[in-house]
Amino acid sequence: MPPSVTRVTASPWLTVVLLCVGQMMIVLDQNIVNVALPAVQSGLGLSSENLVWVVNAYVIPFGGLLLLAGRLGDLIGRKAVFLTGIALFSASSVLCGVATSETLLIASRFLQGIGGAIASACILGMVATVFSDRRKQTQAIAAYSFASAGGGAVGPLLGGVLTDLLSWHWIFFINAPIGATLVLVGMRTLPGDRGEGMGKGTDFLGALLVTSGMMLLVYTIVDAERVGWGAAQTLLLGPLALLLLIGFVVRQATAAKPLLPLGLFRSRSVAAANIVQFLMIAGMFGLLFFGTLYLQRVLTYSSLQAGISFVPIAVVIAVVSLGLSTRLTTRYGQRAMLLLGLALIVGAFVMLSFARVSGVYLVDFLPASLVMGLGFGLAAPAIMGLGMTAVSSAESGIASGLFNTTQQIGGAIGLTVLSAFVNARTNSLIAAGKTEVESLVGGYHVAFLAAAGFTLTALIIGAGLLKVTPSAGVKQQTMASSGQGASVS
After folding, report:
1. Among 387, 315, 322, 373, which Cα is nearest to 345's?
2. 25-68 residue pLDDT tens
3. Which of 28, 136, 151, 289 could pair covalently with 131 via S-S, beta carbons 3.0-4.6 A apart?
4. Residue 475, by phi and psi: left (phi above 0), alpha (psi -120 to 50) or beta?
């Protein structure tokens, strides 16, 4: 039997707002830290080698626990899992802020990653089932998309402001009041759900295999650039992680009560949507990371100036995802909006590949970033809608966890691959006698073109595999939602 859902007594849109604020806080934290890393290093005396673990200590548990957390949401109730994750995330944020040593900071970041995974794994599933009305459901998913994309774009700006005006500690302290408000308000207003119950059984062996495999894979990927892809550590841990994940797939095919029902992938929309999102996010990380480096290392912008430079893309994403995309999706369908958005993202990356050494922000970066915002504002809500409307309400938790997992792994793999391209091209140009700045720009050009290639591949796959009509997908979700007693306004 699917989970029992209690009818929402508060406004369904308040539920969406609370969930989106939680998602934005979590995503923002993943990006806000990057700008503050020099200040953190100076304040705690971290070595360059250990500094990267301020980021990696968060990413590893976050990427590894999403599937398990999503399934727990289905079993014990998504509201309880979400609020538990937010509480842990907020408390560990305070520990990060008061850290006086690198050991305490890195350990607190690990706890933050656990809390972030627990909360984030359930959010999309909850957002997708608040409404059964097609238009409102599309608007809710668009709001979630903005929270995810907007948090990523605003992160560098907020990080620069807090670090420059206060101190790096405040990039963590800011989460405490937001998280406390979410827990207090959410306990009273979020729709209660009992879940299927732990009596339905949990595949603990499968959970152990996928969690250890995902965490080991993420660790191997994020540390490969430091130790080298041909290093003994990479060559040993990489295949071991793959063996664990293969073991997980085998286990799911034979387990009586699997953690991730492989039947989910019989839906072409679910499978294709996750592949498309993986490739799209792999490319988008190129903008956030190498775009920031171009502004700071080539145009010599400060952290605050670089953060402000990303404000236009956040504004465009907000305008498109919260307004324009819903109207266009209702009229033309999710698939059409996805393909248009991906095409615009490809064009934006090609534009960035022409950024000059003596570049000007208004010419070399702003136009491309505006096109990127338009494309992502259209594509992100569409791909999430295509993926989530193809599953039943009872499976929305694990589907949400799966969707978030492909985001994290796509970002980690994409950034690692793009970094390898940048380093190889930069070193070859330096060896050829080019200046450091010329070599860096040449490396960034390769990264942007590779990101365009990722997104173009996503466009081709989406055009070939995503054939389900919006009305059919929405009809399926509407039937599932109404059958479970989901709330409508």
Report:
1. 373
2. 887 777 677 667 777 777 787 765 566 677 777 877 877 777 77
3. 136
4. alpha
CA gap 112, 171 in Å, rounded: 13
Q: By three-state DSSP, how is residue 356 classified?
A: coil
Closest CA to 92 of 79, 81, 108, 80: 108
Q: C-alpha distances in angstroms, 33 versus 61, 120, 171, 180, 445? A: 17, 18, 7, 21, 25
What is the rounded distance in angstroms from the CA atom of residue 380 to the CA atom of residue 324?
Answer: 13
DSSP H stretches of helix in 228-295? 232-254, 268-293
Q: Tell me, yes or no, if the pTM score tops 0.90.
A: no
Nearest of 346, 462, 379 to residue 145 by alpha carbon: 379
CA distance 486 to 83: 20
* CA 302/CA 438 separation, integer angstroms: 20
Token pair in block for residue 387: 């993926």
Q: How far is Cα 396 from Cα 173, in angstroms, rounded to an integer? A: 32
Residue 240: both structure tokens together: 């071991």
Name residues whose C-beta falls within 8 Å of residue 102's C-beta, 6 or more positions apart in sequence: 44, 45, 46, 50
For residues 152 and 27, give the distance between their C-alpha atoms in angstroms, rounded to a whole number. Answer: 6
pLDDT band at 153 (very low <50, low <70, confident <90, very high): low
DSSP assignments along 40-66, one per residue: HHHHHT--HHHHTHHHHHHHHHHHHHH
Q: What angle do CA 248, 251, 256 make, to 5 degrees?
A: 140
| Backbone phi and psi for residue 333, each to the nearest 5 degrees, phi listed first | 100, 155
